[in-house]
C-alpha cells in the first residue's frame, strides 16, 4: 500500500471508529529516577484508557549515548560515559526488584550496550543502535514500576511496529507498515494490558534499529496513537503545558489552555522544545487530540491541542531556536535566469537538509538551516558546500537564533509599531512573513536572542494579554 493511500485509510478509520484508548508519553525528566517513575504510574492508574505508554530514556542518558557516538573519544571519556549510563539505571534498580521476564531482557540489553559502546562505531546504523539503548533500558524499569502499582503491564519492543525508512538518526516513519504491524502485534495486547514501549526508536525494512531525531519520543507517541486509532495522546513532561514562551526564560510566561493544531505545530517547529516538531502531523491528520501537562503536578491541568473551532486573534507565543546557520548564495548569473533556485534546492535535498526560511534578492538567496546541538549528525556537510560553490559564491554565518512570533492570524497592523520599536534595539539579520499567517520570523545574533524574546514577551504579549 502506498503511503498516501495508507494515510487516507487511517483518516477514514479515525473518523469512523475511534477507540477510547489514550497513548501516554513520559519524557526524560518524568522517568529520571524511581520517584519520578512512581509519580507517572499514579497518572496511569488514574486513567483506565491509557493502554500504551511510550517512555523516553531517563534524563541524561541520551546525552551520554550521543557522546559515545563521537569518533575521537579518549578511553577515559568512553568509560565515563558508559559508567554514566549504568549509574542512572542502577539508581533506579536499587529501588526495585525486576520480575524474571524483565530481569533477563534488561541484563541482555545492558550486555549489548556495553559491548557496542566499548569500541568506536563503524556505521551510521551502529550510531542509531547505540542511541536506542536509553529507551530500551528505561522501558524495562518503568514496566516494573507499573507492576508494583498493581497494573498488568507488559514491555513491548516498539521496533516490531514502528517502521521507518533507513535514514539513520532522522528516520521517516512508514505509516502504512506501522499500521499493519500495530494491528498484528500491538492492538491484540491492549484489551488486557498496559503496554510499555519506547519512544524515539523504530526499525527499517531490514529490521535495523533507527531513531527519529532528538526529542522524537513525542512523535513516536503520536504515531502509535494513530496506529491504534487512539482518541488522544497525553504528553507528560516537566511543565504544566505549553507556555506563551519558554518559562525558563520568562518568569511571566503563562500556560496556554487551548491551541489549534496549526499554532502548536508552528510553535514546535520554531523551537518550543516542549513538543517535537513532527508530533502534530499524525495527530492532526487522524483527529487525535493532544494534551501536554506536568507529571509532577498533573492536577494543575495543561494545554489541549485540537482542531480549531474558533481562532484566537493576535500573537499567542514567541519562540526561539538557537544554533541557526545562515547560508547566503550569490551568483550574478541568477539575474533574470531560471533554474538557480532549483539547482540549490536539489543539492540541499540530496544531502537531506531541511530549509527553514528563505529570502531572495536579484542575485542572491539567503537560507536558514538548523544546526541543533546534540543532534546526532551535523546539518551541513563540507561536501554539500563544495557542490554549491561550483556555481555560486557561498557564505556561511553561524551563531544565529531564529525568533518566531506565533498566532492563528498574525496581522500586524496595530502591533507593527510596537514590534518595530522592540526590534529597533537589536541587530536583525533577516525577516520572513507572509508564507504562513501563523508566524513572523527573524534572525538575530545568538548572544542577544534571550533579550529579544524577553523584550517581545514583556512589551507585546504581556501588554496584549493584559488588555
Ligand atoms: P521532555 O524530556 O519531557 O520531553 P523537554 O525538555 O523536551 O521535556 O521539553 C520540556 C521543556 O521545554 C520545558 O522544561 C521548557 O523549558 C521547554 N520549553 C520551551 N519552550 C516552551 C514553551 N513555549 N512552553 C513550555 N515549555 C517550553
Ligand atoms: N531520548 C531522546 C532524546 O533525548 C528522545 C526523547 O527523549 O524524546 O532526544
Ligand atoms: Mg522532549
TrEMBL record:
GO cellular component terms attached to this protein's record: cytosol
GO molecular function, one term: aspartate kinase activity
Catalytic activity: L-aspartate + ATP = 4-phospho-L-aspartate + ADP
Residue ranges constituting the Aspartokinase ACT domain according to the UniProt record: 420-459
Coiled-coil annotated residue ranges, if any: none
Protein name as catalogued: Aspartokinase
GO biological process: homoserine biosynthetic process; lysine biosynthetic process via diaminopimelate; threonine biosynthetic process
Entry's transmembrane regions: none
Organism encoding this protein: Pseudoalteromonas arctica
Lipid biosynthesis recorded as keyword: no
Aspartate/glutamate/uridylate kinase domain span: 21-293
Keywords assigned: Amino-acid biosynthesis, ATP-binding, Kinase, Nucleotide-binding, Transferase
EC number of this enzyme: 2.7.2.4
Positions of ATP binding: 25-28, 237-238, 248, 273-274
Superkingdom classification of source: Bacteria
Gene3D superfamilies found in the cross-reference section: 3.30.70.260, Acetylglutamate kinase-like, Aspartokinase, catalytic domain
Amino acid at each position: 500500500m502506498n503511503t498516501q493511500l495508507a494515510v487516507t485509510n487511517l483518516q477514514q478509520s479515525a473518523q469512523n471508529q475511534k477507540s477510547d484508548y489514550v497513548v501516554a508519553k513520559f519524557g526524560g525528566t518524568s522517568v529520571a529516577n524511581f520517584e519520578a517513575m512512581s509519580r507517572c504510574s499514579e497518572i496511569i492508574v488514574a486513567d483506565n484508557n491509557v493502554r500504551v505508554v511510550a517512555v523516553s530514556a531517563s534524563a541524561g542518558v541520551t546525552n551520554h549515548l550521543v557522546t559515545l557516538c563521537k569518533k575521537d573519544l579518549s578511553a577515559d571519556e568512553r568509560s565515563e560515559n558508559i559508567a554514566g549510563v549504568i549509574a542512572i539505571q542502577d539508581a533506579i534498580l536499587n529501588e526495585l526488584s525486576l520480575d524474571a521476564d524483565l530481569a533477563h531482557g534488561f541484563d541482555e540489553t545492558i550486555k549489548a550496550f556495553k559491548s557496542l559502546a566499548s569500541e568506536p562505531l563503524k556505521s551510521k546504523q551502529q550510531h542509531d543502535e547505540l542511541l536506542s539503548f536509553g529507551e530500551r533500558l528505561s522501558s524495562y524499569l518503568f514496566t516494573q514500576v507499573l507492576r508494583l502499582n498493581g497494573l498488568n503491564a507488559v514491555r513491548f519492543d516498539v521496533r516490531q511496529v514502528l517502521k521507518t525508512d533507513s535514514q539513520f538518526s532522522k528516520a521517516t516513519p512508514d505509516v502504512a507498515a506501522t499500521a499493519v504491524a500495530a494491528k498484528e502485534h500491538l492492538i491484540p495486547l491492549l484489551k488486557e494490558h498496559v503496554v510499555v514501549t519506547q519512544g524515539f526508536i523504530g526499525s527499517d525494512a531490514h529490521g535495523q534499529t533507527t531513531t527519529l531525531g532528538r526529542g522524537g519520543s513525542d512523535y513516536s507517541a503520536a504515531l502509535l496513537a494513530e496506529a491504534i486509532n487512539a482518541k488522544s495522546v497525553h504528553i507528560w513532561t516537566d511543565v504544566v503545558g505549553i507556555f506563551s514562551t519558554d518559562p525558563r526564560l520568562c518568569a511571566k510566561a503563562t500556560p496556554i489552555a487551548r491551541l489549534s493544531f496549526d499554532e502548536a505545530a508552528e510553535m514546535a517547529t520554531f523551537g518550543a522544545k516542549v513538543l517535537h516538531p513532527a508530533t502534530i502531523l499524525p495527530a492532526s491528520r487522524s483527529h487525535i487530540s493532544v494534551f501536554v501537562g506536568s507529571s509532577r503536578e498533573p492536577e494543575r491541568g495543561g494545554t489541549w491541542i485540537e482542531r480549531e473551532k474558533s481562532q484566537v486573534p493576535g500573537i499567542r507565543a514567541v519562540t526561539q531556536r538557537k544554533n541557526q546557520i545562515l547560508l547566503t548564495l550569490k551568483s550574478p548569473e541568477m539575474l533574470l535566469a531560471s533554474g538557480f533556485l532549483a539547482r540549490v534546492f536539489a543539492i540541499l535535498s540530496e544531502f537531506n537538509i531541511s530549509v527553514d526560511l528563505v529570502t531572495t534578492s536579484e542575485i542572491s538567496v539567503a537560507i536558514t538551516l538548523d544546526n541543533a546541538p546534540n543532534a546526532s549528525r551535523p546539518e551541513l556537510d563540507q561536501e554539500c558546500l563544495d557542490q554549491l560553490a561550483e556555481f555560486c559564491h557561498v557564505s556561511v554565518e553561524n551563531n544565529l537564533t531564529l525568533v518566531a512570533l506565533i498566532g492563528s492570524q498574525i496581522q500586524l497592523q496595530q502591533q507593527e509599531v510596537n514590534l518595530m520599536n522592540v526590534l529597533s534595539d537589536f541587530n536583525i539579520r533577516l525577516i520572513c512573513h507572509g508564507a504562513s499567517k501563523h508566524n513572523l520570523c527573524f534572525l538575530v545574533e545568538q548572544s542577544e536572542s534571550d533579550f529579544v524574546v524577553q523584550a517581545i514577551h514583556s512589551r507585546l504579549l504581556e501588554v496584549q494579554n493584559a488588555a
